[in-house]
Amino acid sequence: MAARLTLSDYRALAEFRFQIRRFLGFSERAARASGLDPRQHQLLLALKGLPDRTEPTIGELARRLQVEHHSAVEMVDRLERRRLVSRLRDETDKRRVLVRLTTRGDALLGALSLSHRQELCAAAPALVQVLNGVIDGRRGPAKPRADRLHRGRVSALASK
Prior knowledge:
Helices cover about 60% and strands about 5% of the residues. By secondary structure, the protein is mainly alpha-helical. It has one domain (about 5-160): Winged helix-like DNA-binding domain superfamily/Winged helix DNA-binding domain (Arc Repressor Mutant, subunit A, Orthogonal Bundle). It has a two-stranded antiparallel sheet with strand order 1-2.
């Protein structure tokens, strides 16, 4: 028999989506303020954050961004024109093209990532609370906050 969701479950799911969307809105605004399209920022982050032994190919970047191959090619083209990434041939398989961050791209990504980490630290208490509510089905959504996300320390994470 399928489990039934309660009104509290729906509220927790809705609040979780709201909190994630708030962070994504911050991320989009920060990318644009840095002169990047938000998807370009995502590509730079995906490139820098690839797991060990994962080749930085266009195909892998497309998979990580959940976009079509040609869309990833277009993003890489734009980022390459801005000298934020470069392409190079794979030394073991000359048919494959790898993408690398340039020094300029790495610096831009570093600045953006610092601000993102600060924002996540501020949002973490609400995110953790509402995620726990979604997972265990007993807690309600995080208490509504003012328009700005809570700016407290993330000590609540250490105790989870």
